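Propose amino acids for all 341 sites.
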């Protein structure tokens, strides 16, 4: 089954053709980063307009790269939740209209389920159940994937997502948007022990975490230094921050491994591209003797290939959208967005 998939939940307009959930026939990602970088973050209205301008071109390129005519696809999928609502509506309505015009099924896909499915593309033999750490710009959660469309949330952030914290700290350091890759690069030459940063524990919820205290600590540190006229070492602060994020995420994941007895662990989402997190996860996996599945960097950030992969399993589970299918700014990973109103 060959699915044409579309992703437009944030600042990437993407389209892909995926075969049987596992094989990438084409994948095109058109990013708006340069536009939003001018404003230091994503401007939702500009993102929506950008998707409208790009979606036809990107879809045509994905079909051409796959060597396919649009009539040859078996279904059309699009991210319908969660994300920026105006941005989501562009891809969702375009995908829905195209599906119905072609007389093919329309498959709505949950963006975070898609991030997890990136691992199916990278590891053809991977199948549920497995434990996942999701760390993206909008979400940070520990999720047990019991089956392709069955998820248990074990813990998550109480405030900011990991990627959001990276982006805020990057702003404080004045290194621009998006923060994650820039902080990662700066940190390569930094001393992670130079600045002491907190790990906020949530009382009675050992698998939950918080990034707002960490973010505030970095902001305060930078402001105090500025007031005293003391220079801060950006690479040391970046390294200390990366270490603090790793120290927040990895021990909780290890705890979840112990608690669930999971033998397979996936890390997904934009922050899964972080070199320090990847190294710490490799170490944890070796120490705990669990198999670790880390998608390549090209599949960690937003793309439509992961949406096409998850769409295949949604289709097999009967999760097909009607002409009334809507898009939603928020939706739990466990929710069936076909039935959401
Ligand atoms: O998953 P994603 O592409 O979009 C959402 O669904 O949110 O994640 C984007 C986030 C951004 O906050 C970005 O700064 C972060 O992922 N990110 C990174 C790295 N690359 C991207 N964070 C830390 N280290 C990186 N190398
Ligand atoms: Zn994403």
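Proposal:
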């Amino acid at each position: 089954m060959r699915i044409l998939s579309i992703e437009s939940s944030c600042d990437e307009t993407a389209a892909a053709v995926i075969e049987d959930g596992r094989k990438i026939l084409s994948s095109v990602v058109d990013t708006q980063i340069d536009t939003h970088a001018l404003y230091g973050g994503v401007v939702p209205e500009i993102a929506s307009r950008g998707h409208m301008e790009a979606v036809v071109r990107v879809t045509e390129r994905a079909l051409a790269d796959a060597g396919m005519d649009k009539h040859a696809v078996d279904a059309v999928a699009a991210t319908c939740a969660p994300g920026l609502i105006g941005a989501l509506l562009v891809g969702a309505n375009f995908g829905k209209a195209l599906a119905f015009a072609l007389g093919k099924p329309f498959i709505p896909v949950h963006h975070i389920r898609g991030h997890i499915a990136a691992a199916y593309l990278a590891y053809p033999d991977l199948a549920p159940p497995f434990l996942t750490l999701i760390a993206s710009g909008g979400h940070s959660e520990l999720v047990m994937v019991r089956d392709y469309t069955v998820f248990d949330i074990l813990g998550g952030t109480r405030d900011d997502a990991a990627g959001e914290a990276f982006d805020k700290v990057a702003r404080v350091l004045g290194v621009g948007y998006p923060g994650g890759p820039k902080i990662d690069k700066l940190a390569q030459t930094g001393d992670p022990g130079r600045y002491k940063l907190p790990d906020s524990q949530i009382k009675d919820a050992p698998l939950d975490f918080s990034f707002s205290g960490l973010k505030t600590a970095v902001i305060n540190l930078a402001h105090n230094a500025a007031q005293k006229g003391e220079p801060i070492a950006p690479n040391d602060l970046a390294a200390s921050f990366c270490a603090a994020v790793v120290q927040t995420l990895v021990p909780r994941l290890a705890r979840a491994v112990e608690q669930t007895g999971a033998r397979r662990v996936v890390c997904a989402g934009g922050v899964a591209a972080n070199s320090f997190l990847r190294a710490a996860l490799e170490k944890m996996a070796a120490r705990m003797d669990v198999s670790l599945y880390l998608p390549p960097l090209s599949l960690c950030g937003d793309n439509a290939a992961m949406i096409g992969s998850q769409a295949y399993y949604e289709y097999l589970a009967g999760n097909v959208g009607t002409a009334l299918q809507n898009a939603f700014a928020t939706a739990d990973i466990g929710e069936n967005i076909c039935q959401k109103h």
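The radius of gyration is 20 Å. The mean pLDDT is 97.
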